[in-house]
Every structure is written in structure tokens, then in C-alpha cells.
Amino acid sequence: MEISGEMRLTNSIIEIVMAKLNEIESLANAFDGCRGVFHTAGFIDPAGLSGYSKAMAEIEVSASKNVVKACGVTPSVRHCVLTSSLLTCIWRDNSCNGLPSVIDHSCWSDESVCQNKKLWYALGKLRAEKSAWKVAKESGVKLATVCPGLITGPDFYHRSPTSTIAYLKGVQEMYVNGLLASVDVNRLAEAHVCVFEGMKKTASGRYICFDRIIGSGDEIENLARETGINSSTIIGGASSSNRARFELSNQKLFRLMSRTWRCFNE
Fold this sequence. Notes:
Helix content is 45%, strand content 18%. The chain has 266 residues and is α/β, with parallel strands linked by helices. One of its GO terms (molecular function) is oxidoreductase activity, acting on the CH-OH group of donors, NAD or NADP as acceptor.
């Protein structure tokens, strides 16, 4: 472990610590003294066309497993919140009969669909989250996952273009199926804090997080401006009249956040 510096924020001290994601002991040393861990899992591959190549999927799986294992061997850690992705829920074989029309926290993407469509970002997030749940169960770590839509916000794309581009692979199909959703980065941060605080009581499991479903022409134009991607690339040849609608549900997170903010205001 290498301590690279400190910075002061109001009356508290934030200690910046370096750790190696491929070494559980290094991670455990970094976590020592912490009550909770937020694993935001923001991996990129400069060699990948979209910033996220097929090889990154396995790297992300390994890192997520190590983080949860390190939580399990660090006595001070009580909870772990993993940032996953909405993509772990929406990529299914839509030609199959009987698929539920409502996609919520109980839904999982199909690995074979992600592989066949070369959706490496979705595949990496999917395998990483499943691996994290497996390790958490084996090691007794109290884990929760937040599954956000496309992350947006002032200048977010310009600061993190690779994750945005990787997320939007397959954007036309997401749009056609009514599954192109986004969340403001500040709202996402609030959701993470809310889930973490809720875990001290009864909060657990997966939480889908989005605050906007891209559907109207104005929303498409706004997304195009935010990401620098041409609006025609987003919609392809689809129109509102021929879109096969699925419904995204974030009710689990909405209820949790509503209860939490109500308690804070009382």
C-alpha cells in the first residue's frame, strides 16, 4: 500500500491510498479502518476501439471478485456497494416468447446475446456483478449493487468519453426497445449514498437507477449534444410508431430514496 497524499475537506481529512486491484492483501490494507466500500468499477482499455475491449471483461471480473474478497477479510468493513450497469438487465433474446415486458432489478441480461453482439462492456459488467454476488455469498459480505443507465451530466462525456461510447454500443436497439435510459451523475451519487445508508437497516440486492428514458425528439437531440454522437446514429431508421416498447422499472430504488429523504427531513 502506498499513501500518496492527503487533502482537507471542511473539518475532515480524506486520505488518498493506492492499492493494487489484482492483490487482495493490498486492497485489504487500503480498506482497513473503513466501514464501507464503494467499488465504482470504472475500467477502460486505451487499446480498445470503444475504450472497452473483450479482454477488459475478464479484467473487470477479476477486480470485482478481489474487491469483495478483500471486504470479507477486512474486519472493519460492514458493507460494499458495487456500481454495475443497467446493461446487465436489458440484453435478452427478444425473439423468445414469454419475456416479461417490465424490466426491473430481478432481470438479468443473457451472456450469449452480449457475446454474439460483441457487447463487451455489457458482458464485463454482467460477469463482474454475478461474480461479486457469488463471492459475497461465500464470504458473508453484505453487498448491494446499483445498476445505472447511461451516466450524463455537465461535461461528463468530455471527462469520461470511453465509458459513454462503450455503453452506447447497440444504442439503436436500446432505443427501438424503449430501453435507452440515462441518469445524471449527481443523482447517481445520491443513489449510492442512499443504498449504503439503507444497508444499515433492510436495504439489499440490486437497484436499477435512471432518471430519464430517451424517447422524444428533444431528448434524442439533448443526448446527441451531450455525447457528441449524431442523433441519426441513435435512432437509426426507427420511428416512434414502430418501436417495440418494454418498460423499465426503478421502483425499488425510488421507494428506498423516498423513505430515506423523508427520514432526513423529519
